[in-house]
From TrEMBL:
Gene3D superfamilies: Beta Polymerase, domain 2, cca-adding enzyme, domain 2. It comes from Pseudomonas guariconensis. It catalyses: a tRNA with a 3' CCA end + 2 CTP + ATP = a tRNA with a 3' CCACCA end + 3 diphosphate; a tRNA precursor + 2 CTP + ATP = a tRNA with a 3' CCA end + 3 diphosphate. InterPro entries: CCA_bact (IPR012006), NT_sf (IPR043519), PolA_pol_head_dom (IPR002646), PolyA_RNA-bd (IPR032828), tRNA_CCA-adding_enzyme (IPR050124). The lineage of its organism: Bacteria, Pseudomonadati, Pseudomonadota, Gammaproteobacteria, Pseudomonadales. ATP binds at residues 8, 11, 91, 137, 140. This is CCA-adding enzyme. The gene is cca.
Length: 375
């Protein structure tokens, strides 16, 4: 029984990056041996165990065989006879197919270290094509390591094109696809993720609406996403920036539903598609238009949603090199503060209720916003 550190922990150590999660591989052991040592099994069909003291995951060396479509269409075989090399060859990229033993000795049967040095993302074997999720994973790694100069190897890009054309991407579940999209959007250069998917034909399959946007000569979709990442904006704002150039709310709704994006991401994307023009032209809005916009965002109960909307619109403007100061942001914040400052209690004390109270409150806010506009 031999234990190895594998995958990302080895890769990132060699790159000089911090290592947080460690994957452990056990060669030459059985399920019964692992349980006798106190390891707790995870699930019934997958040979992964929890260490009795550290809580880290240890997987038995295994091989896999394609048995169906999509990410989950595999049959796994784990036994003491499976070698380290047999386990590593089933992995996606050579840079993820390295191992270290307990003494720190490096095992690199597929030349991952050389590809690290050459800054290449290269598949380990033709079996890469059996898992369509790897197209998204490679694009995500390209986004993560773009600042270090990494690129997708030509032969791997060609294999990704073949997968994209095969129909296998349609077999991916919304949950697995979104998990990769979410992680990729939170990288430092998420626009690289979108560009790699586009280059291999996967974007046209997964997000045809966004792919069509990038066909436009004046598209700033990738620049807006890059700007949002540069400002370290949260996931839902980055998703909204990716979708912001859509002119059809139905397209945005379709993308939201296709990947089952979280509710916060869905809502903000729709608001940005619908209302971004009003934000960019906020300085010219009438008091009535300001009231309508603020009510759409429910600023009286959900002030953060307006802040997220402003952040997305500001990232768009800056990605175009327009008005880096973006005075519309403070102007809308000021309008929201003025509207919220209207004395509701005083109106209630006058005996107003129901529809009469609502109309009086709206009129008072209109008056306050008209005065705000004249400052």
């Amino acid at each position: 029984m031999q234990i190895y550190k594998v995958g990302g922990a080895v890769r990132d150590r060699l790159l000089g990056r911090s290592v947080s999660d460690i994957d452990w591989l056990v060669v030459g052991a059985t399920v019964d041996q692992m349980q006798a040592l106190g390891y707790r099994p995870v699930g019934a069909d997958f040979p992964v165990f929890i260490h009795p003291r550290t809580g880290e995951e240890y997987a038995l060396a295994r091989t896999e065989r394609k048995s169906g479509r999509g990410y989950g269409g595999f049959t796994f075989h784990a036994s003491p006879d499976v070698t380290l090399e047999e386990d590593l060859i089933r992995r996606d990229l050579t840079i993820n197919a390295m191992a270290e033993d307990e003494l720190g000795n490096l095992y690199d049967p597929y030349h991952g270290k050389k590809d690290l040095e050459q800054r290449l993302l290269r598949h380990v074997s033709p079996a890469f094509a059996e898992d369509p999720l790897r197209v998204l994973r490679v694009a995500r790694f390209a986004a993560r390591y773009a600042p270090l100069g990494f690129r997708v190897a030509d032969e791997t890009r060609e294999l990704m094109r073949r997968i994209s054309a095969s129909g296998e991407l349609q077999a991916l579940t919304a949950e697995r696809s979104w998990k990769e999209i979410e992680r990729a959007l939170m990288e430092d250069q998420p626009q690289v993720f979108i560009q790699v998917l586009r280059d291999c034909g996967a974007l046209k399959v997964l997000m045809p609406e966004v792919d069509a946007l990038l066909d436009k000569q004046q598209s700033h979709t990738l620049q807006a996403l890059e700007q949002a990442a540069g400002e370290q904006l949260p996931l839902h704002v980055r998703w909204a920036c990716l979708l912001h150039e859509l002119t059809d709310l139905d397209q945005a709704k379709a993308l939201n539903q296709r990947f089952k994006a979280p509710r916060e991401s869905q809502e903000l994307a729709l608001l940005v598609v619908e209302c971004q023009t009003l934000c960019h032209g906020a300085l010219e809005l009438s008091a009535a238009e300001l009231i309508e916009l603020l009510q759409k965002f429910d600023v009286y109960r959900r002030p953060q949603r307006l802040e997220d909307f402003i952040a997305a619109c500001q990232a768009q403007a800056r990605s175009r090199g327009e008005n880096q100061a973006y005075p519309q942001a403070d102007y809308l914040r000021g309008a929201a503060a003025v509207a919220k400052a209207v004395d509701v209690k005083g109106l209630v004390e006058k005996g107003l209720t129901g529809q009469a109270l609502g109309e009086a409150l709206k009129e008072a806010r209109l008056t306050a916003l008209e005065a705000y506009r004249q400052r």
